[in-house]
Amino acid sequence: MAIPAQLTGSAPGRVNLIGEHTDYNGGFALPLAIPARTTASLRVRDDGLVVAESTAPGTEPARFTVDSSPGDVTGWAAYVAGVFWALRDAGHDIPGADVSIHSTVPSGAGLSSSHALECAVAVTLNELHGLGLDRTELALLVQRAENHYVGAPTGAMDQMASLYGQDGHVILFDARAMTAEPVPCDLAGAGLSLVVVDTRVHHEHVDGGYGARRASCEEAAALLGVETLREVQDTPLAEVLGKLDDDVMVRRVRHVLTENARVLDTVALLRAGRAGEIGPLLTASHASMRDDYEITVAEIDVAVDAALAAGALGARMTGGGFGGSVIALTATADAERVGAAVSSAFDQHGYASPSVFTVRPAAGAGIEESQ
């Protein structure tokens, strides 16, 4: 069957409800796809070139060959080049293309804009060329692109959320089993809203902080004689930590293991129809990221504190850290007031005004149209 000349696919950004820095430790996370999406329109070329353009401000068109190697393409276009590279490296002889990108996912806000871009390109190439890859295979290929082409040592949670998202559901991601299980999450039906505060503090996973924490966890796992920290999840926490004599490593491991437990507790409450009771788990997650994993910044902590003081049921940083966004679970009637309180706190501290909006669990990646 002849392939179409052009196809458009899209993939959403994500908010991680709870479960941060657990994925590369073989653990659990609970992300949801959000309505903001990235679209990728691809038109096949027969000259071995990829010509990529984006409507995002400050981006320049890029041209590269389909057989580019890591390091050949930098900047925003590396995310596009990385997907082509990962697919071809896996044995898929895909040709060049004109690639047009448009996104409503805020960049650098901890909402996984880079993975939305990569997943949009990947799902479109998969359909365009009839590769027959399932969504888990696509997620792993996108992770490989991110790790080895872009140079960011991320896990697979963001990709799985973008590819497996469902309306009205969060996704229980088990990184060890590489499974994505939908969990009903009807916040609106429970009179709840999920407020997102984009602090506008830009973050990059290719910076050293993320990688340093991943390396610390890997070193701890080696000292404990296991492949990943997930393998000691059911061992009493005090027993695990007692085998480590480095204070920083102890705190990193404590975050990961207690965060996994918070994810599972959140899932249990959601399945029981008790979404209004998950707030304290979100807040405890933030305290763990702030104190044990040390990945928050001043603006993030101010946003969380202001949201809680204004009546949020729970609040936490979402994403890899060192900037990005905060989420606050509120009664729907309180959502506007909580957002205004955070904005006021930022003004009092002399910070740039944040962007405040609400999100709901939305659909995952898919094909938008074909021509």
UniProtKB/TrEMBL annotation:
What is the uppermost EC class here? transferase
Any GO CC annotation of this UniProt entry: cytosol
Extract the coiled-coil ranges from the record.
none
Metabolic or biological pathway, per its Swiss-Prot or TrEMBL entry: Carbohydrate metabolism; galactose metabolism
For the GHMP kinase C-terminal domain, which residue ranges apply?
Answer: 268-347
Known PANTHER family for this protein?
Answer: GALACTOKINASE-RELATED (PTHR10457:SF7), MEVALONATE KINASE/GALACTOKINASE (PTHR10457)
Q: What is this protein called?
A: Galactokinase
